[in-house]
Specification:
Chain lengths: ~240, ~400, ~350, ~290
């Protein structure tokens, strides 16, 4: 089967510092791929480079279309939703407005209300707080809001940047439960960047290990989970 | 070359350069004047808040072009160089020095503004280069004893203030006067003239309200002036604010006798925007013909001006008093230069400027003439009182001389 | 409106590490050229160059505030005016020699700046911009206030006597004032460079880059920010005093908010945070309006605006940014070509 | 007492001028987080366009609509033509470009239409209200200002594009991630600001007369009003503008000796004092945020 996203020779740098040194990887349609690695390995940079948020070089194809030169908003319009590091909440807008913004690039206005209702189905807490300024939400709620906003796009691919970051373990579990549910019901492919390898590998089918801007190991989630040497060398558990 | 030699050479160059600059510094009586040409400088705000006045310099330039087409003055073609100072005194100094030292003009003519001209007055006199017919009515530019190279032109503000004072003393001795004035030298000169003219009856002034050019409107001042219960309103404002004030007085239902300073008595630029109905009965004084006044329709001088405007300054605004002003002041310069043909030097020109006797200009109304002497550096001092009848200015009374008010 | 992001690229103004020698040489050449110029130019041009130096000093002061400390001012023309009036009043009313008016103007402006800086501490970005802009607009109205007219001369201003060269030096007044200004300017520049590389300078930059962290390190932000305002105002005030002496005249009309705007434009064109840029800024303030006027008098303002926009396109971070880029380029070239 | 009431009413009338301009300022601030120093000159230029149309015989309201439309387009063109290339330039460079635009518009207007003051017609007729303290035009201007305010509220509150503009202004990076074309939102902000500026100009010109320098000082008062009310709040801008008008009149009338000479500085001083106590203005929104 043709991959949904294929990346060849992806490079990016901050000033003189090269952070990505030629990544090659693919993401299969409908699957969850985990991108693992230590702090500073280039995980977040990879997501940002895919979305065109930073200057990058190399070839990226989404569903057969080259997107390595496209602008962020055009990439998003193709159906790639990015849940950014720090969650990208619009603090001074209400929760509901935040969700509506997720559907901003879709022409069909009529479906928006239905979609908002569906998101509230996934995240009842957000429904309770729909009129509240999003800045007043707790960290976990903001993470849910960010995922909900991304889903409003009806994306084909979701890029998730450390959804567990800064959340209490119970909340992390809830978030991942919802992600698993979403994956089942909405058939969304995901590229999941995580420090918390345990959770990530439980959700993923496939995983890449990133080390200083290069892919060190690639394999199925199961293989990696079960390979003690990899766990010791890269994942530290 | 040996090292000592090269050092000597450098010293020599330095010495020569110093000597050169010293020589260049001392101005010469005929700087800017050749057998064929005379260079005349001018400084005007083409940019910044006072740029409305740039029409004057454009008229001046057009007039010089006309003179050149008619063979020049004393057989010399005029080279007219006009620079922008944005109404900022430091820039005026720079431009004046550029004109005198770099362009080497024979004189600076009709530079505009009080602060700007004050800034260069000392310099021009040190350089012994005429600063002729400065475009301001500040009374300080007629001081031959201290500044023999500087001369004003239009009737000064203090004298005009006195003319109104005398009018009031004679016709409305029990008036209560309210004054709106611009908070600068121009406004304060008028106010001082009014007070001096009223003398010991200065208490007739019951309210004074200053405004700044940065004020968007003078509404607040007008409310206070009306509140003072005055029955005479002396309007010492530049065109925009003068028009606002007249309009506001009408809106407030305040109907005092109104005196309007001559800076703002243009029908097109002030009374029309203010509204003819509201302007009815306003009293002012003039020293130049109003180009819109039908009584001058067949006037020889006005015909000449019209022909000039059509040919040399077609873009110019015939409604504007600035074009009338520029034409007249330029004509005065023409007469001064003609009077100096025999002694065409800086001091010769200055002598001619200080020796004008009963000179009529194309656009001065009958009875108003240019007069100067070695001790009188105020060329125009006579004014004609006028009253607005709802359509145009109507002269009334005698020509009033400002000379005895000095 | 944060100044931080753009100026923090410069670590310590005038102190990149590698090409120190080259920089010093460039500096010496500039100073030598500046020192030699008046020997070959007419007095009028010398006067213009003197004005350029004076504006450069004023912009240097503004740069200390904006470039080094990250505070924004659209009102430095006000301090320039205070300096100018201080000099004028001391010379004409108190009969003080012109040389002594400079430190006096510096002190008066330091105090004014410090006092203005205190309430301004609570204002950031746009609010500070408005407060300083308001100061600039209000200054001419203060200067002609009738209450202080006996000293300021009101709207008529004060005419000042121009000093001759001392000790019988064979210099014209203009040449002498040029050298006088040049020496004062070099002293102030030296002071600025030392200030920036001192402990206090580092504290100022720390406040610019990260006020919270600076406070955590024990920097008294309030004190340093007010001091920065004071020092900056003192520089600009000294420039104002020099301006008064050279122009021989002060009046409210000389110090409208357009002066503040001109200084600000000079700062940005020269390069925010790059101290030598002040000279470029000074040149811009003096010469570009003349160039614009030369093109077309009636459209001088428009031409000026277009020149300004083109310059910003060409060098978005001012002359400082351009110089840095060129230096980087040369540096890389040299690196990529190792010793043969 | 009578004078006090008169000065307050007259202050409201003048304040309406500032409120009008303050709205345009708040609009551009929403879009670019900046005070545009060329805003006043752009409004002045728009007003001259209207004047020209009227001089050519176009009926008032048609000229009004045409001018607003042209100004809207003009604002967008300026953003796309001038500022788009400067996306990555530092903020201070943008401010310098504002200054450049200021010079360009001022000079062009003087070149095309000269510097003499021109009367500008009012659609609300002439006459006097409240004993002449307010003209019908000034009353009409207040109504128009409130109308613009209401339109803005509806636009930002209830339209998708209004929401997108708010999002783009609040957090451009996130806005891009939901597919909003942030550059165009900024351009749209410019367009709307210059359209509102055009309305302000056409409302102000009948009071102060039309000439190239008409907006120079009004812009400062507009800034003051907008900042006093809170730059993030259109309602605040209108209230702030009116307040500045009143403060200024009262300062000029009741502060002895220096009052009449220092109306503007006193007003500015009051505003700075307010800001020191309430840094985000009277009605400015403090962003509530949990970390």
């Amino acid at each position: 089967m043709k991959p949904l996203l294929s990346v060849r020779g992806l490079e990016a740098s901050y000033g003189d510092l090269k952070v990505l040194r030629g990544l090659d990887f693919t993401i299969a349609e409908g699957g969850v791929t985990a991108l693992l690695g230590a702090n500073g390995a280039g995980k977040t940079t990879t997501l940002r480079a895919l979305c065109g948020m930073i200057p990058r070089s190399g070839e990226v194809e989404f569903d057969g279309r080259p997107i390595s030169r496209a602008r962020t908003e055009d990439i998003v319009r193709l159906g790639i939703a990015h849940v950014p590091e720090g969650r990208g909440t619009f603090f001074n807008l209400t929760v509901e407005e935040n969700l509506e913004l997720g559907a901003m690039s879709r022409p069909a206005r009529r479906e928006v209300a239905d979609d908002v209702a569906r998101i509230y189905g996934y995240f009842p807490r957000l429904k309770e707080r729909r009129r509240q300024q999003a800045g007043t939400l707790s960290g976990g709620e903001q993470q849910m809001l960010a995922i909900g906003r991304a889903l409003m796009l009806r994306p084909r691919l979701m890029l998730l940047d450390e959804p567990s970051f800064g959340l209490a373990p119970l909340v992390v579990e809830e978030v991942f439960r919802i992600l698993a549910h979403v994956r089942e019901t909405m058939k969304v492919s995901m590229l999941l960047v995580e420090q918390n390898a345990n959770f990530a590998l439980s959700l993923a089918d496939h995983a890449y290990l990133l080390e200083t801007g290069e892919i060190a190991v690639a394999g199925s989630a199961e293989e990696i989970r079960n390979d003690e040497s990899i766990r010791n060398a890269y994942l530290g558990y | 070359m040996t090292r000592t030699n090269s050092r000597l050479a450098i010293l020599g160059v330095l010495a020569a350069a110093t000597a050169l600059t010293v020589v260049a510094a001392s101005a010469d009586e005929t700087t800017g004047i050749t057998d064929k040409t005379i260079k005349i400088g001018n400084i005007m705000p083409y940019s910044g808040p006072a740029s409305a006045y740039s029409q004057i310099a454009k008229t001046d330039a057009a007039y010089m072009k006309m003179l050149n087409d008619n063979g020049g003055v004393c057989g010399r073609q005029i080279e007219f160089i006009s620079y922008d100072d944005g109404y900022s005194p430091p820039k005026t100094v720079e431009q004046a020095r550029k004109l005198v030292e770099s362009d080497q003009v024979a004189l600076i003519f009709n530079s505009l503004g009080t602060g700007t001209n004050t800034a260069i007055q000392k310099y021009m006199n040190a350089k012994k280069t005429p600063q002729l017919f400065v475009a301001t009515g500040a009374s300080k530019f007629g001081d031959p004893e201290h500044f023999p190279w500087t001369m004003g032109w239009q009737p000064d503000y203090v004298s005009e203030g006195k003319i109104y004072a005398r009018y009031l003393l004679k016709n409305m001795p029990d008036a209560k006067i309210a004054v709106l004035y611009q908070n600068d030298d121009y406004g304060k000169d008028y106010l001082a003239g009014l007070k001096a003219g009223l003398g010991d009856k200065a208490s007739m002034i019951v309210a004074e309200q200053p405004y700044e050019t940065s004020d968007p409107t003078v509404d607040s001042q007008m409310v206070n002036l009306k509140g003072s219960g005055a029955d005479v309103f002396f309007n010492v404002a530049t065109p925009k604010f003068a028009a606002q004030a007249i309009k506001k007085a009408a809106e407030l239902g305040w109907k005092p006798a109104q005196l309007l300073n001559s800076v703002s008595n243009s029908v097109g630029a002030v009374l029309k925007p203010a509204g003819f109905e509201a302007s009815k009965g306003v009293i002012s004084a003039l020293y130049l013909k109003d180009s819109q006044d039908p009584q001058w329709k067949d006037d020889e001088g006005m015909k000449k001006w019209n022909a000039f405007m059509d040919k040399y300054y077609p873009d110019g605004d015939k409604n504007s008093s600035f074009t009338v002003y520029g034409y007249s002041v330029s004509q005065t310069l023409e007469k001064v230069l003609e009077g100096a043909c025999d002694d065409f030097t800086h001091s010769g020109i200055m002598k001619s400027a200080a020796n004008m006797k009963n000179v009529d200009l194309d656009l001065t109304p009958p009875g108003i003439q240019v007069n100067t002497s070695a001790t009188d550096f105020y060329p125009l001092q006579d004014m004609q009182l006028i009253k607005f009848d709802g359509e145009r200015w109507q002269p009334f009374g005698e020509v009033v001389s400002g000379a005895d008010t000095q | 409106m944060s100044v931080r992001e753009e100026s923090s690229a410069i670590t310590a103004a005038g102190k990149p590490v590698s090409r120190f020698g080259a920089r010093n040489w460039a500096g010496i050449v500039v100073v030598l050229v500046l020192a030699a110029l008046p020997l070959f130019l007419a007095n009028f041009t010398i006067f213009q160059l003197t004005m350029m130096l004076i504006y450069a000093i004023a912009i240097l002061g503004l740069n200390l505030l904006t470039g080094i400390n990250g505070q924004f001012s659209l009102g430095h023309g006000a301090f320039y005016a205070i300096g100018a009036y201080t000099a004028a009043i001391l010379m004409e009313d108190a009969g003080l020699a012109y040389g002594w008016t400079l430190p006096a103007a510096g002190i008066v402006c330091f105090l004014s700046g410090f006092l203005f800086g205190l309430p301004a501490l609570r204002l950031e970005g746009i609010y500070l911009a408005l407060a300083t802009f308001g100061l600039a607009v209000a200054m001419p109205q203060f200067l002609k206030l009738s209450v202080i007219e006996p000293w300021t001369g009101g709207v008529q201003g004060i005419v000042i006597t121009k000093p001759d060269a001392p000790f019988g030096l064979p210099l014209s007044q203009d040449q002498w004032l040029y050298y006088f200004t040049l020496v004062v300017g070099l002293l102030l520049y030296w002071f600025a460079v030392n200030l920036v590389s001192s402990r206090s300078g580092r504290a100022l930059m720390a406040i610019r880059d990260n006020p919270l962290a600076a406070r955590a390190m024990g920097v008294n932000n309030a004190l340093y920010k007010s001091l920065a305002f004071g020092v900056s105002a003192a520089f600009t005030g000294i420039a104002g005093a020099l301006g008064a002496i050279v122009v021989q005249f002060v009046a409210p009309d000389s110090f409208t908010f357009f002066l503040s705007v001109a200084l600000f434009v000079g700062l940005v064109v020269g390069g925010v945070g790059w101290l030598p840029g002040a000279l470029v800024g000074g040149a811009f303030v003096v010469f570009v309006p003349n160039v614009a006027e030369h093109f077309n008098k009636a459209l001088a303002g428009a031409v000026y605006g277009v020149i300004l926009i083109l310059l910003i396109y060409l060098m978005p971070t001012g002359a400082g940014g351009l110089v840095r880029k060129v230096a980087d380029f040369i540096g890389r070239r040299m690196k990529s070509r190792p010793d043969r | 007492m009578e004078i006090l009431i008169q000065q307050i009413v007259s202050g409201v009338a003048t304040g309406a001028i500032y409120a009008c301009m303050a709205l345009a300022i708040v609009m551009i601030y929403q879009a670019i987080h900046h005070l545009n120093f060329a805003q006043g000159e752009m409004a002045m230029f728009s007003t001259f366009v209207a004047w020209q149309l009227l001089a050519w015989g176009v009926p008032y309201w048609l000229a009004f609509v045409l001018t607003v439309a042209l100004s809207f387009a003009g604002g967008i063109v300026i953003e796309r033509l001038v500022f788009r290339r400067l996306e990555n330039a530092p903020v201070l460079s943008h401010v310098v470009v504002f200054i450049a635009l200021f010079a360009i518009f001022n000079s062009l207007a003087g070149f095309i239409w000269n510097f003499e003051i021109k009367p500008f017609p009012s659609p609300f007729g002439s006459g006097a209200l409240f004993g002449g303290l307010m003209s019908p035009h000034q009353a009409g201007m207040i109504v128009v200002t409130l109308l613009v305010l209401a339109l803005l509220y509806v636009f930002f509150r209830f339209t998708r594009i209004g929401l997108a503009m708010r999002a783009a202004a609040a957090n451009p990076e996130s806005a891009r991630l939901v597919g909003i074309r942030v550059g165009w939102m900024t351009a749209l902000g410019w367009g709307m600001a210059s359209a509102i500026g055009a309305v302000a100009g056409m409302m102000i010109a009948p009071v102060v007369f039309l000439e190239p320098n008409m907006m120079v000082s009004i812009l400062l008062y507009g800034f003051a009003g907008a900042v006093l009310g809170g730059l993030t709040s259109p309602v605040g801008a209108v209230i702030g503008g009116l307040a500045v008008g009143i403060i200024e009149n009262l300062a000029g009338t009741y502060i002895p000796v220096v009052g009449p000479e220092l109306k503007l500085p006193v007003a500015l001083f009051v505003i700075v004092a307010v800001l020191v106590v309430r840094p985000s203005g009277l009605l400015g929104r403090k962003i509530v945020q949990r970390v």
